[in-house]
């Protein structure tokens, strides 16, 4: 019989993360309930200001969720119907979905096999006169190649949008030695406060970032029915507001984000050391220009039929939960058949869908639990 883990292991343990904050969360929620300013209450603006300070000064526009944030970012570009938006071939579906529902055309570009982020050469090849935007996803907690993507966008007169739902607080070292904060380099950056994110709420929530004050005002209007003032609608917009209770609770969590990020990084470094040299598996690659906040710790298993799935089953039988992000590339999803892509066009993305496996990673994972997980990965592959 397999040895049991030292304590039950969760892929993400939110109750353990929240436990030290419970009294403060309860008190904040009670104040919000007492004030009853549930929509656009003062905590929303306070949270936006505090998050902007944490990210180095961009304007922050809260909204209802991360997918809405992507749609609002695209709406703010005022692209013509049918304009093309270059997206990673390996990402969560919301990145494509946001463009598709607005009548824009998602154009996948393949990704780098190590970092899983957009391949700038593939982006360059996908650019056409119809391209309106490049949408970079900072996948699993590490910045895409912001230097190359910003240069491509500028050279071709298109906008850069950053989907930063998985990499809040990550930074990128530019060629001029400037430190760029993920989500603040493009015309618009977006994030999600879905509960499983590194800064997660207690329901849905999202935000947009921009260093352009005029665009920030426009985004605020778009997110509130296109209003310039109450009952005066200058634009066609969305009903996409971060509710006051979510902002209230996120304000409690935000000051702890640096400590939680450092804890995730320590877990990742321990996994690296314990899995070093193991045949048939690659630990997450690091772009030396980017920090990594480890929303996920994702292994790449040797591309042999059934090997990744067999390892996942082996680990599950030994009390180690894992996840596959993502099992099917978006260009092969039935909803996107209309785009006309076929299997084999994005080989890196398709191979990753067959080979990636994410291990448990969260701030409260203990050294003993990490050691147990790594030992079981070794046992399953050796």
UniProtKB/TrEMBL annotation:
Keywords of the record: Aminotransferase, Pyridoxal phosphate, Transferase
A Pfam short name: DegT_DnrJ_EryC1
SUPFAM superfamilies in the record: PLP-dependent transferases
Any one Gene Ontology molecular-function term assigned to this protein's record: transaminase activity
Family from the record: Belongs to the DegT/DnrJ/EryC1 family.
Record-given protein name: DegT/DnrJ/EryC1/StrS family aminotransferase
Organism classification: Bacteria, Pseudomonadati, Bacteroidota, Cytophagia, Cytophagales
